[in-house]
Write a structure and sequence with these properties.
By secondary structure, this protein is of the alpha+beta class. About 45% of the residues lie in helices and about 15% in strands. It is built from 26 helices and 21 strands. About 30% of the residues are buried. It catalyses: ssDNA + n NTP = ssDNA/pppN(pN)n-1 hybrid + (n-1) diphosphate.
């Protein structure tokens, strides 16, 4: 049974491994002084900038910034997950991987029969495309779409015949196998009605594989007028839509050296591009592209091209993708945006134009920076002081999310050119501009409501919102002396030195009152602690705090903030992987390099505010506070519309009515913590 790998084994494995030997087996190294060097395997270069230190057992590239230990190198170079890298080094060292004891109902125990039954059914679907009596309509559809038999075989495409119990009767021969079919999402079980039947019927079947090539789910395209046209497997113990990409395994299998990925909309887009020799296309599974998707792709390539329809819906989807990729951009990474002609998709276009013409479109796709400023300008040239000020106000918070480097500076230079301002002055605004404090809307001093707004808005007068001093918890800041410090696992207990204003040092617990902190000066760099960061630390230290948490987090999705998005991804991941340890989280979310986790790099020697036994209450309080902040943000957005006398939609009217009672409800919850 595969369980969690103990941290002590990982530490012992690294101590037995010489990183120089590991890398030299894959990239020939040359002795240069006390270190070794080579041309970096992770980016194109002519002069060696890749250095390996035998003393520190660490590698670093001065060109692209790639760095890590032996495990990190194996993950990046061999393109394997964390466990795969551990297995590689363990086999090399002649060690057997131990596992920590797990309950009989562990995740691995649940996954084994599900993965096995999915493989069986996938083979059967493929066979039905060749042998079933009604296969002709499926084959006719695929041929009409231009698909060849060789391509269908390469992607494992099959046919789910008509009928309600084909899979059930053939594979559900025992109670255990029937339960495995239900857990795999292949059967729909309705015990209250006494019914159990096949989920996929009369559909073209596209198997979905994980990064190891194992089938974890299916997508089915209907052959009749039944709705929906496309049907995916539901969430299961092995299949999570917001983490998987269709075609990723095939891209890595059929393309020896991937240099970019193209994100398209549908299965047939991926398959048809692959048939024409473009093996770099992937598709999301009925969800918007997420941070998790993009991090997965950026770990393997430096360039991603988003492919969208050229209509209004396509533009809006592109803007959402822009906001998702923005915090992940850094020097060496590229994101491009390709808009197709009206009525065309990648499937149809590559059949009309061919591979070379389609590749030319990809190469001419709009760059990240151009699309960012086009989006910010809204198609207008900022030719007035007001327009330039508005552009700066919109651009600076977005540019601030990008990792420090040349790309960020060039974006600042571009903004300076568009606004006519000095780039250094803009940089000062970027560094010192803080989020506006929560306003006391009850003190609002605009003209009388009846004079400023039409009578039809009488029901939407300003509502009271939380004031700036609404902070009964008084979060003290965290401090760390080493800005670049990063340890694994992160120590979350201990003491910190404080210096009285009189100059005398003394030891002090972190659990001092906020008032006492205000009278003392910390030694080292201030790390601003927010409810979001506090919630992240709680989850990293005590993942069990998430158990039975029943807070609705929908309001948090309105935040355009990379750390909030990271928190939501962390919550989603831990709900599906509750036994994940620090090493699993650090590898999955790339703590060392992920801009959204940058604050973690500065917290290696701090203590932790909440007691372990109080983790859930502390997490709940911070999530509630974030919800209140989100409501404030939505209120201010609607308030701005009212001030400009822009009419509300019916949905916005209802949203405005709901804000006040929801805020009051959350405040009551907060007081009851």
């Amino acid at each position: 049974m595969a369980g969690k790998i103990p941290q002590r084994f990982i530490d012992d494995l690294l101590s037995r491994t010489d990183i120089v030997d590991v890398i030299d087996e894959r990239v020939p190294l040359k002795k240069t002084g006390k270190n070794y060097s080579a041309c970096c395997p992770f980016h194109q270069e002519k002069s060696p900038s890749f250095s390996v230190s035998p003393d520190k057992q660490f590698y670093y590239c001065f060109g692209c910034g790639a760095s890590g230990n032996a495990l990190g190198f194996i993950m990046e170079y061999d393109r394997v997950e964390f466990r795969g890298a551990v297995e590689t080094l363990a086999q090399r060292a002649g060690l057997e991987i131990p596992t920590e004891a797990q309950d009989n109902d562990s995740k691995e125990d649940k996954q084994t029969p599900i993965l096995a039954i999915l493989e069986e059914v996938a083979e059967w679907y493929s066979l039905q495309l060749k042998e079933h009596l009604q296969r002709d309509k499926a084959i006719s559809y695929l041929r009409k779409r231009g698909l060849t038999g060789q391509t269908a075989k390469a992607f494992g495409i099959g046919f789910a015949p008509p009928g309600w119990d084909n899979v059930l009767s053939r594979f559900g021969t025992t109670a255990a196998r029937r339960q495995a079919l239900i857990d795999a999402g292949l059967l729909i079980d309705k015990p209250e009605e006494g019914r159990c039947y096949d989920r996929f019927r009369d559909r073209i079947m596209f198997p979905i594989r994980n990064s190891k090539g194992k089938i974890i789910g299916f997508g089915g395209r209907v052959l009749t007028n039944e709705k929906p046209k496309y049907l995916n497997s539901p969430e299961t113990p092995v299949f999570h839509k917001n983490q998987e990409l269709y075609g990723l395994y095939e891209a890595r299998k059929y393309c020896k050296r991937l240099e970019r990925f193209v994100i398209v909309e549908g299965y047939m887009d991926v398959v048809m591009l692959g048939q024409h020799g473009l093996h770099e296309a992937v598709a999301t599974l009925g969800t918007a592209t997420s941070d998790t998707h993009l991090r997965t792709l950026f770990r393997r390539v430096e360039e991603i091209v988003f492919c969208f329809d050229g209509d209004e819906a396509g533009r809006k989807a592109a803007e959402r993708a822009l906001m998702t990729v923005l915090p992940l951009m850094e020097d060496g990474r590229q994101a491009r945006f390709l808009f197709l002609p009206d009525g065309e998709d990648p499937d149809s276009l590559i059949q009309q134009e061919g591979l070379e013409a389609f590749q030319r479109r990809l190469n001419r796709a709009q760059s990240f920076s151009d699309f960012l400023f086009d989006h910010l300008q809204g198609g207008e040239v900022p030719d007035t002081a007001e327009a330039k000020a508005m552009l700066s106000k919109r651009a600076l918070p977005l540019i601030a999310q990008i990792k420090e480097g040349i790309l960020k500076q060039l974006l600042m230079d571009n903004l300076a050119h568009l606004t006519g301002m000095d780039s250094q002055r803009l940089q000062q605004w970027l560094e010192h501009d803080q989020p506006a404090p929560i306003k006391d809307i009850n003190a609002y001093q605009e003209p009388a409501w009846d004079e400023a707004h039409p009578a039809e808005y009488a029901d939407y007068a300003p509502i009271g919102m939380p004031a700036a001093d609404d902070n009964e918890f008084g979060y003290p800041p965290y401090y760390t002396e080493d800005e670049e410090a990063f340890s694994s696992p992160m120590p979350l207990t201990g003491k910190k030195e404080w210096k009285k204003k009189g100059g005398k040092k003394q030891k002090g617990e972190w659990k001092k009152s906020a008032a006492k902190h205000e009278k003392e000066e910390p030694i080292g760099k201030v790390v601003r602690m927010t409810p979001c960061r506090a919630a992240v630390l709680t989850l990293i230290r005590s993942p069990e705090a998430l158990a039975d948490l029943d807070i609705d987090l929908n309001y948090l999705h309105s935040f355009a903030d990379s750390e909030i998005h990271f928190l939501l991804e962390l919550i989603t991941y831990l709900r599906h992987q509750p036994e994940a340890g620090f090493a699993d989280l650090a590898a999955h979310f790339d703590f060392a390099n992920n801009p959204s986790c940058r604050f973690l790099n500065q917290l290696s020697e701090i203590s932790y505010q909440a007691d372990a036994d109080d983790g859930q209450r502390y997490l709940r309080s911070n999530l509630i506070r974030l919800q209140i902040d989100a409501i404030q943000q939505q209120y201010e957005s609607l308030q701005e519309k009212l001030l400009k006398q822009i009419r509300f939609t019916e949905e916005e009217k209802q949203q405005y009515r709901d804000l006040q009672p929801k805020r009051l409800e959350l405040q009551q919850l907060l007081k009851g913590q």
